[in-house]
Q: What sequence folds into this?
């Protein structure tokens, strides 16, 4: 006859695993930067270079939701290898910008992060960043950790 404590422990472990899986599967919340006066250029719109800052902030916001505790950037971090932005409409002071991130292609050492920028449902821009994993201790590029791959798979399935 099985010990009831063993059964309770197994049930608790299964429930915890289900909770972790469910939390990874939850859709990440978009990032909403504050549009500051300093972000505006002489034309009264957000300067194009400012978008790179917004993308970085959105990427970190998204990364914390998706990768969570599997991320210790002091060990294995990422370097930006490439940015690509296609602008569709301007953003002005007071606009409510929203940036949704998703994972694109994941290679051996690289990760593509995609962005959809919008204001009140109106498309503003599409962008992507290619990141390369980097081992800070060894000072070399390295493979994408399996824990990160698992986290990406959980939000894309």
A:
């Amino acid at each position: 006859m099985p010990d009831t404590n063993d059964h309770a422990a197994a049930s608790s472990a299964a429930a915890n695993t289900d909770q972790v899986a469910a939390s990874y599967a939850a859709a990440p919340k978009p990032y909403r930067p504050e549009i500051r006066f300093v972000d505006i250029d002489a034309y009264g719109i957000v300067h194009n270079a400012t978008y790179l800052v917004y993308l970085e902030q959105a990427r970190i916001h998204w990364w914390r939701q998706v990768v969570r505790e599997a991320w210790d950037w002091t060990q294995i971090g990422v370097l930006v290898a490439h940015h690509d932005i296609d602008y569709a409409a301007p953003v002005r002071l007071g606009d409510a910008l929203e940036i949704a991130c998703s994972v694109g292609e994941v290679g051996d050492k690289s990760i593509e992060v995609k962005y959809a920028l919008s204001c009140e449902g109106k498309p503003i821009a599409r962008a992507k960043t290619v990141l390369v994993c980097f081992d800070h201790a060894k000072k070399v590029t390295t493979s994408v950790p399996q824990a990160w791959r698992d986290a990406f798979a959980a939000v894309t399935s």
Q: What stands out?
A: Residues 28-156 form a domain with the Thiol Ester Dehydrase; Chain A fold (CATH 3.10.129.10). Helices lie at 4-25, 50-66, 146-156. The first strand starts at residue 76 and ends at 87.
